[in-house]
Amino acid sequence: MKLQYENVYVCIYFDSDVNKNVKWPNQFLTDSWHFTSKSFGFLGDPLYAIFHAGKHPGGEPATYLDELKDNRSVLDSGMLSKNAWEVEDDNARIILLRQVGYIIECK
């Protein structure tokens, strides 16, 4: 895992198989987490997002209440395609937003 992007809202990590030129999740998750925090209150800052390509299809979210994830809100997301995350499409956004929704539900 390598840190690809960070700000006050998100820390985004890519595994070695994700194209390092993928940038759309940076603003998408920043906006999503900012909106989520304003709307639902504290859910952990920042949001940690881990991306995989060619493995781990779907997502595995964790909340800041989860000691096994070091009390961090985390999205751990993958797709089977080697070109995963290169295109911002409905499938990619749904994978991420479904996990954000899980974090909100667990609050």
Notes on the protein architecture:
The protein contains two helices and five strands; from the N terminus they run E-E-H-E-E-E-H. It has about 110 residues and is α/β, with parallel strands linked by helices. It has a five-stranded mixed sheet with strand order 1-2-3-5-4, covered by helices on one side. Strand 2, helix 1 (about 25-40) and strand 3 (about 45-55) form a beta-alpha-beta unit. About 30% of the residues are buried.
Which descriptors apply to this entry?
5-stranded mixed beta sheet, globular, alpha/beta, 31% helix, 2 helices, 107 residues
Short description, anyone?
This protein is α/β, with parallel strands linked by helices and 107 residues long. It has two helices and five strands. The protein has one domain.
Number of separate structural domains: 1
Strand content: 25-35%
Order of strands across the main sheet: 1-2-3-5-4
**Major beta sheet summary:** 5 strands, mixed
Q: What secondary-structure arrangement, pairings included, does this model have?
A:
Elements lengths: L1 E5 L3 E5 L9 H17 L6 E7 L4 E5 L11 E6 L10 H16 L2
